[in-house]
Amino acid sequence: MWATSIVFAGCGDGPQSSGQDASDSDAPSSETGATGTDTSGSVVPTEATSAPPDSEGGSGSHGQDSSSSGSSTTGEPPAPACGDGRLDPGEACDDGNDDPFDGCLADCTTVAPIDAPPLEWKYFEVPGTMCMNGTTAGFGVSLNPASKNVMIYLEGGGACFNDACDFSAFNIPFIPPPDGIFNRNNPVNPVRDWSMIYVPYCTGDIHGGDKDTTLGGQVRHFRGYTNITKYLQQWVPTFPGAEKVLLTGISAGGFGAGLNAAQVADAFGPGPQMIVIDDSGPPVSNQVIPPCLQQTFREVWGLDQTILAACGPDCADPDDFATGILHHTLTAYPDIRFGLFSNTADAIIRGFMSFGWGNGQYDTCEGLPISVPAEVYEDGLLSLRADHEDAAATYYIGQTQVLYNFGQGHTVLRSPSFWTTVIDGVQLAEWVGKVIDGEVTHVGP
Question: What is the pTM of this model?
Fold first, then answer.
């Protein structure tokens, strides 16, 4: 596999540094690649050693130009300035707007679209991004130049919010996913022909944070939300004619898909159809995720400066932010298509939320963590469905499903379960296709 480092061109200064080396065993990437500058002033990524092969994309502009005349009262021509809508010496671009996702940044540097071999996986490091351990973060891509649709997948894997966290769990290198929704050979897969983006999980903050916090005697860098902002500067110009954008993920990545839906929709703009499918990261209320635990998340990960700042008045109760974010997304983006998969007694998520159920007591973040009672978790999922019945599709495996361990399972999208899960006669992959097509259907209890 091959890794590439993405770097932006400076205002006549040549390429910037590619950032901290992520080649150690903790990073979800490999050695930092070199970059070169083409004759137009944009920096072209070049390959380094170690991580995967990939595919191709195009370039384009996002947003409208708003050139300023910069006229002088003395009649003399205005001094060259970045942001005046004119390409001055030393500038790689100048479109006169403040859209950070159209390929021309506010400092008049350009972002090269992703260039990779078709239908192969390739990993890109992105300078300016950061994993929890301080190494450079990145994403994998498998591009199909024949498709105008793109799937963005956020990986899961727990969360870090106290000294007891297993920090080593967030140092897994990128490995191309083998099955499930990534399988291009199964004709049942509704996204088999799409371009695919895979975001490894190295931030420990359900892809929502922007804060440095000391845990386990060491500063931890929670940059999940701002990493995605940086990635979008590369993704959007690569897919200028996108027709459908699916944002999805499992577990922590499922939570992350919901938390980042607004910024992804804003970055791509009104053109593409936006779809969100959350696998096992349900935005249930604070009756399930107690207020004290939601407060911990906010303080450790800096959520007040990321998702809650973007949510504004729709998140009136910051300690019930999960439901607030969903309400905001469905209200502010009424055309969005949303689907939620969950087991109604998901043992992993109930255990994850147990830190707000100390000694089995609700809203107690001290004492021995006890899993959320299964009936409380199921009630939370059913209430979530009822609150958004006409806007968000659901697929639940209930506590009467013997073949599914009585609804205690966890995630399905990236495993063979994507093909074998059938509830009430509806195959999961079929339901995903219906969500993509805009059908709001409810499967299970």
Answer: 0.83
